[in-house]
Design brief:
- There is one protein chain.
- Helix 1 runs parallel beside helix 2.
- 33% of the residues lie in helices and 22% in strands.
- By secondary structure, it is an alpha/beta fold.
- The protein starts with 15 loop residues before the first strand and ends with a helix.
- The protein is built from 14 helices and 19 strands.
- Helix 1 links the parallel strand 1 and strand 2.
- The chain is globular.
- The structure holds cytidine-5'-triphosphate.
- The site of cytidine-5'-triphosphate has 13 residues, from helix 12 and strand 16.
Length: 444
């Protein structure tokens, strides 16, 4: 496994982020920024300028952020929004920031909700400029950027590349992943400083010197070179748990089964990622990573079965489709797919503890349940907890509009007897935080 992670580059827990959007063509990328922040577990309110709304609609920004969107200081005067939003913010991120917005910020103007919010905010402010090269290099903009930096605003360097027209150069809005990573690093830094000032000393993180292995995503079992049996798991919760464990100081290995790059981009630097495709590959990778693991958290959706035979060539619709044959294939019933059972990785970790040195590994499983005529979600979860024998089993209800309450998502954690240990609810980031706190407490 890799060396222990570097200092966490993202903040712990759910934070309140104001995303300002100004009038640049790159405003259409703001929803991606919002989505990444929310996927990382943060609460987001969007404050666009009037000009931004010429490029992107308020309903889209409200939908991705989950909050209504206002632009003017007079939209809801009773709520004193220009102060309230600034006070609410733990981070203000303006993405994209146009040349005009940089000028207004540098001048200290407060003629719309966004600029007023920046003036009232006591949180860090990060801006991601986007404009044409001439505007970025103009002496006025250069001075505005210098002024803002002098005042403590973090100005993200724009990318170089294709601009709105046929031209290219410096001034391009950076990839949303980079914008979010740099903004969250600023937020993490600010909180580290606050913690250090608050306690007067740096404390050992509660998972320091621990090795935590997390599996995430969904396995894919090939039928032939182009087809597979798979599932819908995105790997987001497992990735957030891995990120949270790293923030608690653990050395983390994430065994990622078919997890998209935009989800993996939520990981802080230093997390070791082992990519796998099938259940057998996942089993081998998890066991190998667990040789010195203090905890293993199995969030991956592992296929219970795989095709008994994997065709080396593409399976044809009508069975026979030989080149040169005039028979375009005759209508036959498709051959049934014979399946063989995959190993139960979680049960295997319980039956055969993975540590080479005889040390103990805390084994945590997940169970997504729908409930059925034979029992509700928790009854199925409890039966599974007893069957699997893991130290902890986090049960969550899945299906259309199903959950344990009026919340984004919720898990009930059971012990190996099926008894309830705790409940965690909220955003996936919040659930990851709750579970990692529980695991840290168990390991303490
Ligand atoms: N799991 C595993 N190996 C498998 C199947 C599941 O390690 N072959 C793990 C999952 O990572 C998860 C837990 O077991 O932590 C529960 O997975 P789930 O699919 O809910 O359980 P199954 O045993 O497949 O039960 P069923 O499909 O009957 O609900």
């Amino acid at each position: 496994m890799s060396s222990s992670p570097q200092r966490a580059a993202t903040p712990t827990g759910t934070r309140r982020v104001v995303v300002g959007v100004s009038g640049s063509i790159a405003a259409y990328k703001a929803p991606f920024v919002v989505r990444l922040l929310r996927a990382a577990g943060h609460e987001v309110r969007v404050v666009p300028t009037e000009a931004a709304l010429r490029f992107i609609g308020a309903p889209a920004l409200a939908a991705v952020s989950g909050h209504p969107v206002d632009t003017g200081v007079f939209d809801d005067p009773a709520a004193v929004e220009h102060v309230a939003v600034g006070e609410w913010a733990e981070l203000v991120l303006i993405a994209p920031a146009s040349a005009d917005l940089l000028a207004r910020l540098a001048a200290g103007r407060a003629d719309d909700l966004l600029t007023a919010t920046v003036l009232t905010a006591t949180s860090p402010v990060v801006v991601a400029p986007a404009m044409h090269t001439q505007m970025w290099l103009n002496a006025a903009t250069v001075e505005n950027v210098a002024t803002l930096r002098r005042r403590g605003v973090t100005v993200i360097e724009p990318d170089s590349g294709r601009l709105t027209g046929a031209d290219s150069g410096v001034g391009r809005f950076p990839e949303p992943e980079r914008v979010v990573a740099e903004a969250l690093a600023v937020l993490a830094e600010a909180h580290a400083e606050v913690d250090a000032q608050g306690t007067g000393a740096t404390t050992e993180p509660d998972l320091g010197r621990r090795h935590v292995v997390v599996s995430a995503g969904g396995t894919r079992e090939p039928l032939d070179p182009v087809r597979f049996l798979g599932n819908r798991s995105s790997g987001r919760l497992g990735t957030l748990i891995a990120a949270e464990a790293a923030r608690h100081g653990a050395a983390v290995t994430l065994v990622a089964a078919n997890v998209e790059a935009d989800v993996l981009s939520l990981l802080p630097a230093g997390v070791e990622v082992v990519t796998v495709g099938t259940a057998l590959e996942l089993e081998a990778a998890v066991r190998s990573a667990c040789g010195d693991a203090d905890a293993v958290i199995m969030t991956a959706a592992v296929a219970d079965f795989r095709p008994a035979v994997v065709s080396g060539t593409k399976i044809k619709k009508h069975g026979v489709d030989a080149p040169g044959s005039s028979e375009a294939g005759h209508s036959t019933r498709p051959a049934p797919i014979e399946l063989v059972e995959n190993p139960d990785v979680l049960a295997g970790l319980v039956a055969q503890p993975p540590r080479a040195d005889g040390g103990r590994t805390l084994v945590v499983g997940f169970a997504a349940e729908t409930g059925d005529a034979t029992g509700d979600v928790l009854a199925h979860g409890a039966a599974k907890a007893r069957r699997k024998g893991a130290d902890l089993l986090a049960v969550n209800a899945v299906g259309d509009g199903v959950g344990f309450g009026d919340v984004d998502s919720a898990v009930v954690v059971l012990d190996r007897e099926g008894e309830e240990v705790t409940r965690v609810s909220g955003s996936k980031g919040h659930i990851a935080e709750g579970l990692v706190n529980l695991i840290a407490a168990r390991l303490a």
